[in-house]
Specification:
eight-stranded mixed sheet; two-stranded antiparallel ribbon; Cytidine Deaminase, domain 2
Amino acid sequence: MIFKTKKLERSLVFLNETRDGIVSYSKINHPDEMILILKGHSKKGKMFVESLVVPPFHEAGPIFAGFPANQLPFDSDYIGMVHSHPVGTAEPSSEDLHNFFGLVSVTIKSPYDDEDIFAWDSTGNPIPILDE
């Protein structure tokens, strides 16, 4: 075989207090959902979240949060998005998977603490979140 087919094990690391930003923004927007874009980089399957972006023209309510992706300025540092689930589990819904953006989708569930943050790939498989 000419090419190696080594499967990358993906993981996620939050840098620069981005985890605290996600928790705070979720609490501020409760009982509505919130949505943010994750900026960072990926190296050998390890994704690093360096900052958060409020998407332009985003909309949110008690059971939805979204934004028109065609209104985003081009930025190769976008690696995914995070949104909250004010009720229920952090598992991605079928709508979450159909609107997947980037390399990773992060969900935070109420009551919005560090241990309530979960990461998923585009098929709904969990991605481990590592400490900085």
